[in-house]
Amino acid sequence: MAHRDLPYSATKPSVGETSPVRVAVFASGDGTNLQTLLDRCRPPEAARIVLVASDKPAAGALDRARTSGVATHIIPDPSDGDAIVEVLRDVETDLVVLAGYLKLVPLGVVRAFEGRMINIHPALLPAFGGKGMYGALVHRAVIESGATVSGVTVHLVNEEFDRGRIVAQWPVPVKAADTPETLAARVLEVEHQLLPAVVLTAARNGKVVRLPFSQAAFSAGDAPAVTNTLVST
């Protein structure tokens, strides 16, 4: 999938300033990954969260957005791509982030935001991905497989669940005594580091770029640090 430069907001910035990348976040649940973005995408950073959308009216992510003064939208029909594109264009969206959004994004939305829509997944894709693989189901499958390493993947979104080109991955050890809950907690710590790194790197570079995995930076600890060394793709 070809990259496209992120179109910055049409609002003219002040002299010496750069208009921040406008980010819309889709979430179906509590929104802990959203919270990390809300916390990190503040001045003087190059990205702003301008919209949080959900298919679940009671999603905690919507409450987090309202608390932060960010506009919200409840998606009445997740299969209506035209309506979703209209909402995103109304707020001049530059980058779309799926952070725990469980619906398949309609093809029309994928095409409208080709190269500008990313998703975070709690495993090392292409393993343990696809339709129905989310949350505790992913971690249970990892443990039952006997894998000794799991992790986090951020990828571009295409027309299939979890099959877009990988932007960033980070490994997380699977311990002998792990349950889906303990593994999920360890993976989530890395999600909270990796997703903001990808979003802010995209904002600073004007396009989604790959964050490489550094073998030297990974230890068998619970939450390895995320490097911001960049490689353009």
Task: Give your account of this protein's structure.
40% of the residues are buried. The protein is 30% helix and 18% strand. It has helices spanning 32-40, 60-67, 81-90, 107-112, 136-145, 180-205, and strands at residues 21-26, 47-54, 71-74, 95-98, 117-121, 149-156, 166-173. The chain is α/β, with parallel strands linked by helices. The protein contains six helices and seven strands; from the N terminus they run E-H-E-H-E-H-E-H-E-H-E-E-H. It is globular. The protein has a seven-stranded mixed sheet with strand order 3-2-1-4-5-6-7, with helices on one face. Helix 2 links the parallel strand 2 (47-54) and strand 3 (71-74). It has two domains: 18-114, Formyl transferase, N-terminal domain (Rossmann fold), CATH 3.40.50; 121-154 and 168-233, Formyl transferase, N-terminal domain (Rossmann fold), CATH 3.40.50.170.
Number of helices: 6
Assign the CATH superfamily of the largest domain: Formyl transferase, N-terminal domain
Largest sheet: 7 strands, mixed
* Total strands: 7
Assess the beta-strand content as a share of residues. 15-25%
Q: What's the CATH class of the largest domain, please?
A: Alpha Beta
Kindly give the count of domains. Answer: 2
Structural class assignment: alpha/beta
User: What's the SSE pattern?
Assistant: EHEHEHEHEHEEH
Mean pLDDT: 87
Backbone CA Rg? 17 Å
Spans where pLDDT lies below 50 across 5 or more residues: 1-16, 215-233
